[in-house]
Amino acid sequence: MAGSFRAELVKKSPGPIELYEVALDTARVQDVQDEEPFVEYIRALRSGRKVDLIVPVGAPAALFLQRYRTILFHNVPMLVIGADLRRIPGATLSDNDAAVLLDLDLPAYLENILRLRPETTDVAVVVGNSPVERFWTSELRRDFEPFGDRVHLTWFNDLTFDEMLARAASMPPRSAILYFLLSEDAAGVTYSQDRALEKLREVANVPVFGMGDYELGRGIVGGPLMQTQALGQEGAEVALRILKGEKPGSINAPSIVFGAPIYDWRELRRWGISEARLPPGSVVQYQQPTIWQQYHKEVLAAIGAFAGQTLVVVILLIQMRKRQQAELSLKESDDRMAFAAASTGTGIWQLDIVADRLWTTEYCRSMLGLANDATPTMAALIGAFHPDDRAALGESVRSAIDRGMPIDGEFRVVAADGATRWFATRGRPRCDENGRPIRLSGIFADVTARRNAEAEAEFQRKELTHLLRVSVLGELSGAIAHELNQPLTAILANAQAARLMIGEKNPDLGAVSEVLDDIMQEDNRAGEVIQRLRTLLKKGERKAALVDISDLVDSTLRLLHGELVARKIHVDVALPDRLPPTWGDAVQLQQVLLNLVMNAMDSMNASVPSARLITISARAGSDGSVTIDIADRGRGIDGAAARRLFQPFFTTKEHGLGLGLSICSTIVKAHGGTLSLRNNAERGATATLMLPAEAAMLAAE
Fold first, then answer.
1. Which fold has domain 543-701?
2. Phi-psi region of 308 (alpha: psi -120 to 50; beta: other; left: phi over 0)
3. How confident is the model at residue 76 (pLDDT cuts 50, 70, 90)?
4. Are 211 and 220 in contact (CB under 8 A)?
5. ∠ at Cα 603 (600, 605), nearest 5°?
6. To 10 degrees, the CA torsion angle through 296, 297, 303, 304?
7. CATH of 451-541 given 1.10.287, 3.30.420, 3.40.140, 1.10.3470
8. Which of 54-68, 286-300, 426-440: highest mean pLDDT?
9. CA–CA separation, 223 vs 208, rounded Å?
10. What is the C-alpha to C-alpha distance for residues 379 and 356, in angstroms, rounded to an integer?
């Protein structure tokens, strides 16, 4: 269906059309949660591209798009093609939708079998067990019910494909097979429609009938068939009308019904079916010519043999000339290919494994620093790369030679000026008829610019993460100043008291010692506040080590103590006595906790002080993972914003940057964990941070 529509659209369009095609495997994707990666893939594919029309082919694709229309293609016109009226009724289409639908006459399939073979007593219906096929099994059973007194129906939907083949090979003499639809058998194994039909036809001992014109020539007898060509033509005409500006809802395209019955002459002969039984107006294809039609050229050639000898000489001379021109053209083509590859920074190479002979373009040798006048070898080529990368590249080449594995990697080369350049290496083996690799073909492409860009992007991400920490601490500056002012005030008061005590005639040295102890304690308290600030403000590479979750929560709350008091927010901490340690960067994980608690605080700005409560709890999983929940009693998460919370620069705060949750999500994913937000049942929202077991995080490192 898709191929017919695509061909007709390109042929009939007055101008160029840019097409993007994605395929949903309906036999494998059966649950809504399985569709989420596919939704994200489509979202990424269309990012930055203007889409003028979406065309779901078949009912599963149409139903999928109806579920995700608003988030993937909001306000984009939709044209549904190839779905049956039973699956997509007109009532489900909006004013922004048009449809070119099928109207399959299911009883016509059985009527055709009984017309061609009136003696038929048994019909086996081949249909699979995917959700789509289960729908059609129900429709077929209902529409075939009136034939119950004329023929016995056997259903293959609860069989594996091997069982279907065994049944097809042992059908009773007066039987037939109706091959309707098979993409997944009862065991959940998926199959190609065409390949499954061909294998079934090879073993079947009775005629096989099909349901679509695309199956003709692959083993079916024929009859009234679904018209994919007519579907493509009508669909292309409607698509062009929509692209010209016509409102989709105003287009009332006729449904595609069966055309003239079409039959395969070879299958009619094979099963002894007389053409006299075919319906009027039938079309018979694949007819074999008669003896005269098949061999009249040879007969005429024998008569003109003498003249033919002269022609042979002339043709040989012409062929010699053409061969010379072809060799010259091939050399020019090689030169153009080498020039084109060099202009894109790509070197081409090929290794003849049997002869152990390496061929490279001149540009390939120059980019690797190999001599142009020397015959290159694979050892010399590998030796041109960085010493630390030669073993990996050599192993890739050996895997390609020994096991037929493709070559795919990026390796370094140190240029003559000392600069390091990166080259993407791609290669594919070519095998003989026994599956043994005989030739390796590949390219070297300079990707230094991309590598540098990736390094610069990583540097900018780290700078942005640090900037976010500084921004959060800037918001807490008043509370931090108050937190420091308390121990400093206590130090000053104690120092003044000690001075007065010492000035007395008989000073109490024990009391003075207690005052000096208080001064030391308050000084340590102020030092801890400053040390926590320095830890969060410092820059540097990520440092992984064992992290105690309880200490991490405690230090974060101590850092926020002043702000919590100022905002009159109570924090309830419920942590188990023993939580397994996790592995990661304590500064980055504290940044995540700090941001999540700040968000919880901000969400309760409008709440009365008595209702301002944050609950922090944690639990250990059976696999050693740790889950932390931060629940508030604020305004909760707006439904429209829920799907965009982790997108960069999206914020629900009046003066927010929209980077906090995005950076937190990146940090958590880098640690192998997950971060999610959900509304509470009664009030507020809960942020859930899951960090994997220590062993899993070490593996990620």
1. Heat Shock Protein 90 (3.30.565)
2. alpha
3. very high
4. no
5. 115
6. 160
7. 1.10.287
8. 54-68
9. 11
10. 11
- Residues 560, 598: Cα–Cα separation, whole Å: 9
The token pair at 659 is 């980077």
| Distance between CA atoms of residues 231 and 180, nearest Å | 18
d(CA 584, CA 590): 11
Rounded to 5 degrees, φ, ψ at 357 are -120, 130
Is 678 within 8 Å of 664 (Cβ atoms)? no
Long-range contacts: 238-247, Cβ < 8 Å, 24+?
A: 238/79, 238/98, 238/100, 239/5, 239/9, 239/53, 239/55, 239/79, 240/9, 240/12, 240/13, 242/53, 242/77, 242/79, 242/98, 243/17, 243/52, 243/53, 247/95
The whole-model pTM stands at 0.44
Q: Residue 545: how many CA atoms within 13 Å on its side-chain side?
A: 6
What is residue 387's three-state secondary structure?
A: helix
- 344-446 under CATH 3.30.450.20, yes or no: yes
Q: Please tell me the chain's helix, strand, coil percentages from 3-state DSSP, rounded to the nearest 5.
A: 50, 20, 35
For the ranges 203-207, 299-303, 603-607, 657-661, the lowest mean pLDDT is seen at: 657-661
Structure tokens belonging to residue 402? 């020994």
- CB 597, CB 567: distance < 8 Å: no
Which residue is listed with tokens 């079409």? 262
